[in-house]
Amino acid sequence: MAVVVVGSYNQDMVWRTPRFPLPGETRLGEFSSGPGGKGFNQAIAACRQGAETHFIGALGADVFGREMLALAAHEGLHTHCEQHASQATGTAAIIVDAHAQNLIVVGPGANAALSTTHIESQRDCLERAARVLVTQHEVAFAASATAQTLAKAAKVLCLHNPAPPVVDDIAHQLCQQADILTPNETEFVHLLCLAQVMDVDASNLGLQPDGQLHAWCRAISQATVVITLGAQGAFVSHAEDQRRGDAVAYYRVEPRFVLAIDTTGAGDAFTGALAAALVTAPLAPFAQAVAQASKVAALSTERSGAALAIPHAAEVAERFG
Asked: Which pTM was predicted?
């Protein structure tokens, strides 16, 4: 059984600078470029943790698309990509400061044109190969919703990463019908606001009492919610009747100590590694999968870039045991 990711590929254009420019300010920095996109990052993370992984997405008929296919083949990632001659492969502009924080602007390109027809053509992959389906908000919402509908009908576990935050009825449907949600602090606060539950400062979310976080999670979704809290670790909230092998309904997972230089793609590394753990050790407690995903995400921040910064399983084992 496999992880199937329906999602985006972006060619990342990265600038590193000591601090973010102010509005109207020009700053000098160092430039690099490499593979990214939330969906592709998640697929690489799952693949590098040893799970059979399939990536379903859309590319332009250009050099970035060709480079992506070559890299995927090298990684052992199975690709099922729709090609759009009239659209460019997705791109992202990323600025990283001296504190490893980032600012990102995405040009969706072909990602926004991923069709429901293409998703339907991958029915066999979604219904027969998949154990876990991973979706996000960087491709056409109707395509992701079609994939989720096919997967749920086949009783495939649906993991949704509600990023980037959007206001859209289909995106809301993706969140409500998912079995597992993996928002970061900002994305979780956005979900709280959409549900008219609470408007809280995302920077203080990790300081909230566990009982309060659990109550908020239960108010926004029936899904298992895993909030990634960066340097504060992660928080897990289950519905009482669906604890996924855990002894308690909510708990924290402690962060791993690392010397972070770039947090770009860390949330994607977490989501992809979580999906991989659910495939490779399906009978293990959910907490074990979250702990493994936290290790992968933490180690990824010690390297620059997105997809290529994600460690392999052996590297994670060597570092953290």
From this structure: 0.94
* pLDDT tens by residue, 166-212: 999 999 999 999 999 999 999 999 999 998 887 788 888 999 999 99
Q: Which residues of 69-83 are buried (b: 16+ CB within 10 A; e: fewer)?
A: eebbeebebbbbbbe
Helices 313-320, 286-300: inter-axial angle, 10-degree rounding: 90
What gap in Å lies between CA 49 and CA 280, rounded to an integer?
Answer: 9
Q: Which of 12, 179, 262, 268 is catalytic?
A: 268
Instruction: Give the strands of the sheet with 102-107, arranged side by side.
Output: 30-36, 10-16, 90-96, 102-107
Domains and CATH numbers, the chain: 2-7+38-84+112-320 (3.40.1190.20)
Phi, psi of 24 (to 5 degrees): 85, -5
Residue type, 98: A
Size of the chain, expressed as the number of residues it contains: 321
DSSP string over 3-36: EEEE---EEEEEEE-SSPPPTT-----EEEEEEE
Q: Is residue 268 flagged as an active site residue?
A: yes
